[in-house]
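Final report, closing paragraph on structural work. Over the funding period we assembled a curated collection of sequence-structure pairs, and we close with a single example.
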Amino acid sequence: MTAQKYCYSLLALSAVGGFAALIAAGQNPPSIHVSVEMVQLDVAVTDRKGAYISGLKPSDFVVSEDGIVQNMAMFAEGDNAPRRLVEIAAGDMGAAPAGSSSVATTIAPNPPPQQAQLAAPSGSANAGANDELLTGASVFILFDTSNYMYRGFVFAQDAISNFVRSLQGADRIAFYSYSRNLFRAASLTTDRTQVLRGVRTTVAGDNAALYDAILLTLRDAQHFTGRRVIVVFSNGPDNASIAPPEDIEELVQSEGVAIYMISTRQAEMEPLSTKAFERIATSTGGESFFAKNWTEEQQAFSAIREDLAHLYSLYYYPEQNPNRGWRALTVKLKGPGMNKYRIRARSGYRPLPVRPNTEGTAAEGN
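Its predicted structure, as stored:
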């Protein structure tokens, strides 16, 4: 990605919070700090038929960042709260076969001292966060209420409502609708009734500004830790956004947010939209679905629910890396027979600046 596009990404996100207003007023912008706190990487593992593989251990995974192998610090499967690897190793020690080794025995339980005092950037997990905040997922649902949606509006509401009811456990849900503007019908909550009320009160609008809506949703997601996903239900191409999809794609990856796209046949008939939707979903570790009818919409939502329930969360403190630009991520499985499984995760990230502070100091972590 060019430097010009990266500058646009920063300005696009900060303008939502008022950073651009300082520049326009002739004031000196606050200093920007880069942090390297704990990275959370959500990973799906399936066989060739798409069935999820459960019961894997931290020692089964190898995470590399720019080719540098990372030492995992915490690990979780599904909706379980993350555990430090030293705790997992201690619990498994009695059952471990003679002569076996565990990656956990080589990993420090605490962050490096120089990192512990830095503010946590968006898209990272705070090692001191309450386990409840790292359990389950924060699910932001974006519902296309543009003029593309007129014909299937009620059916789409039904599919979304069923999806909301199906999410169990500690999952938190927010429901937003968008056309040219974003409407926050229900803030992030565990109260399903509040979310369903928001779904039923949505009304149709005009043109669709999907990428702008994702940008604003990312700003809200910054304030939460743990697994965060955006589920988009779209019935047509974006025809009103200012932000281009390429910049949105990089920002979403850098924030550590997975995008799941459910779109209809109308969007599938738009080649540019199809490629953009698929690229954004794949690069962030999510998936894209094209549903031609209500039944396929339901199936797509069911697939997303199953995916969220089977993800592995891998946490690590990045090893020393002089690269402050784009960092490529790779996840592999090691051990006999592991190469037959398929892995889905975000493809990289750019270390994000700590949010600007008008006092000139680093903001507190989200």
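DSSP finds eleven helices and 15 strands in the chain. The first strand starts at residue 39 and ends at 46. We thank the funder for supporting this effort.
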